[in-house]
Amino acid sequence: MLHPDGQYEPSLIPRLVEPILRGEADMVLGSRLAEPGAALAGGMPLYKYVANRILTSIENAVLGTHLSEMHTGYRAYSRELLMKIPFLRNSLGFSFDSEVLFQTVHFGFRIAEVPARSRYFDDASSIGFRDATIYGLRTLGALARLVLHRKGIWRSRRYLP
Asked: Is 161 a domain residue?
């Protein structure tokens, strides 16, 4: 998956799929935050950087993961993952990517990261501050839904096989 806004270099695709081809991962994230300072040097707006770090920290704490970034538009998926998670039950908005990530963790699939450089320019991002705020809130809502599902308080079809 490569967001079509021109932020990510397509030349990284071979490195992105390597862990899947080697049988080491079911999902690979191209992380802009894996290399300290790279995201801001590439022009990521400070508010997006801070929001990304906060959301990723909360998600890591809830999911028990240690990922550097969960909000990248550069991902690779194994066929097995896509055949087994119920992604068709997810939202049709920007939070879809987060929901797929939560399902990946919930169903016990392996995630790897590779550093990814990005570049920001006027036409590079399709999401502004308002939409980014809505995305963040919807992502937290999806995470809360997973927590409620795990505790048996509110069953969600998104987390049933």
From this structure: no
CATH number at residue 85: 3.90.550.10
Q: Are 78 and 20 in contact (CB under 8 A)?
A: yes
Tell me how far apart the alpha carbons of residues 118 and 79 are, in angstroms, rounded to a whole number.
26
Does an H or E element contain 137, and which? helix 129-150
Long-range own/partner contacts, residues 57-60 (CB < 8 A, 24 or more apart): 58/140, 58/143, 59/98, 59/101, 59/102, 59/139, 59/143
Q: 122-153: per-residue pLDDT in tens?
A: 666 657 789 889 999 999 999 999 999 999 99
Tell me whether residue 127 is exposed, middle or buried, using C-beta atoms within 10 angstroms of its C-beta: 0 to 12, 13 to 18, 19 or more: middle
Indicate whether 1 belongs to any domain: no
